[in-house]
Design brief:
The protein contains 7 helices and 7 strands. By secondary structure, it is α/β, with parallel strands linked by helices. The chain has a single domain, classed as Rossmann fold, CATH 3.40.50. Bound molecules: adenosine monophosphate (AMP).
């Protein structure tokens, strides 16, 4: 079975619309027969995606570093079908990368951004060519896209940087992009 890795907010305080989109994404991942690989938490959008997958009878694989479990036992998504406990954050990311055939980024904070940027820079170096899709709920990622375009304009980044990812309005378009993904033709109509 193919896995989709989702990076997203751990925050519980964000507007309900972000939780709804996260749950919907989880449901659609499961309906398509993909398993979810993610950070293994029960909170925020992370928990919402995992519960969405389970609502449709899908499989949830959580990859969580030991220190999160020590810090707060409640954080972990106890219903995960598989919970992989890693020594640290770096080995966690390595496992998520290995297991996933595609990456979806929902709105999030610096943890989400860091995970997404790592995949983007690995793609830039040719170390992976798996699809990377941002879901732009409420235009959340417009600022990041503008910043990336400015980097290109000012020659801090190559024009091809904008081909390392795509951005979609919602889960259906993101999953459609993944299902029809071809590394040579990954330009986005929403960019
Ligand atoms: P943030 O966007 O800062 O909320 O960070 C979310 C991302 O960082 C997720 O995709 C997780 O992989 C990781 N992360 C942050 N907080 C947690 C947590 N409490 N438990 C597990 N993973 C977390």
């Amino acid at each position: 079975m193919k896995s989709i890795c989702v990076f997203c907010a751990s925050s519980r305080a964000v507007d309900g619309v972000y939780h709804e989109v996260a749950t919907d994404l989880g449901r659609q991942i499961a309906r398509l027969g993909f398993e979810l690989v993610y950070g293994g938490a029960s909170i925020g959008l992370m928990g919402a995606v995992a519960r969405g997958v389970h609502a449709e009878g899908g499989k949830v694989v959580g990859v969580i570093p030991e220190f999160f479990r020590k810090k707060d036992k409640e954080i972990e998504y106890a219903d995960a079908d598989e919970l992989i406990v890693t020594e640290d954050m770096r080995s966690r990311k390595a496992i998520m990368d290995e297991r996933a055939s595609a990456f979806i980024v929902l709105p999030g904070g610096i943890g989400t951004l860091e995970e997404a940027m790592e995949i983007m820079s690995m793609k830039q170096l040719g170390l992976t060519n798996k699809p990377l899709v941002f879901i732009n709920t409420n235009k959340f990622y417009d600022g990041l896209i503008a910043n990336l375009k400015e980097m290109v304009d000012l020659k801090f980044a190559k024009a091809s940087t904008l081909e390392l990812f795509t951005i979609c309005p919602g889960p259906a378009e993101a999953l459609d992009f993944i299902l029809t993904y071809h590394p040579e033709k990954s330009e986005s109509k929403w960019l």
